[in-house]
Amino acid sequence: MKHIKWCLLIFTVFLAACGNNEIETNMSENVADFEFTTQDNEKLGLNDLEGKWWIADFIFTNCTTVCLPMTSNMSQLQDLLQEEGMDVQLISFTVDPENDSPEVLKKYAESNGAELSNWSYLTGYDYETIKEFSEGSFRSELHEDPGSDQITHGIRFFLVSPEGEVIKNYYGIDMNEVETIIDDLKKVL
């Protein structure tokens, strides 16, 4: 009888492990309501993303350090999402809205191979608004560098649930993290 109980316990643990569709989260922040301007000069807001999984990052077009590898990795992520048939939105918020007009963002997107059907670049706010939004909703610090046109910002990609909750972040400059994002999305989609 004792042997049967152990077998049942092991079988139950095995089934629970096989059916795991949850991911290990490292965040729990609600995204503040927003409505910003896309690279196509259209409005996009939190309400438009309701019911969808999305990945966010913070970049700017004049960045001389981390933005290019982040954008390249986001482009690779987009390719993998398409290969896997996953319906996930990609959102890049500029941290330099004074320079990054919709036209500048569209040119940047096109020059970096972005497919704009599910990847939006957002602007149409002032620096203080994006600083508060980045730090408040994503816990991602933002600092202007005095005497420079560079802005110090986080290097993370953020997974946002259909309910508008940031549930996990990933190193945006690490291509291996792109595979982790895909693995996580397979569990929740």
Question: Your description of this structure?
Answer:
- With about 190 residues, this protein is of the alpha+beta class.
- It has 6 helices and 10 strands.
- It has helices at about 1-20, 45-50, 65-85, 100-110, 125-140, 175-189; strands spanning about 30, 35-40, 45, 55-60, 90-95, 120-125, 140-145, 150-155, 155-160, 165-170.
- An 8-stranded mixed sheet has the order 1-10-9-4-5-6-2-3, sandwiched between helices. Strands 7-8 form a two-stranded antiparallel sheet.
- α3 (about 65-85) runs parallel beside α6 (about 175-189).
- The longest helix has 18 residues, at about 65-85.
- It is globular and about 45 Å long.
- The model is unreliable at about 5-20 (pLDDT under 50).
Q: Report the span from N to C terminus.
A: 41 Å
Largest sheet: 8 strands, mixed
Strand content is: 15-25%
> Rg, please?
19 Å
The number of helical runs is 6
Number of strands: 10
Quick structural summary:
With 189 residues, this protein is α+β, with helices and mostly antiparallel strands. Helix content is 40%, strand content 23%. The chain is globular, with a radius of gyration of 19 Å.
What is the strand and helix layout of this fold?
Layout: H1 2-18, E1 29-30, E2 35-38, E3 43-45, H2 46-49, E4 54-59, H3 67-84, E5 89-94, H4 102-111, E6 119-123, H5 127-138, E7 142-144, E8 151-153, E9 156-160, E10 165-171, H6 175-188
Parallel strand pairs: 4-5, 5-6
Antiparallel strand pairs: 1-10, 2-3, 2-6, 4-9, 7-8, 9-10
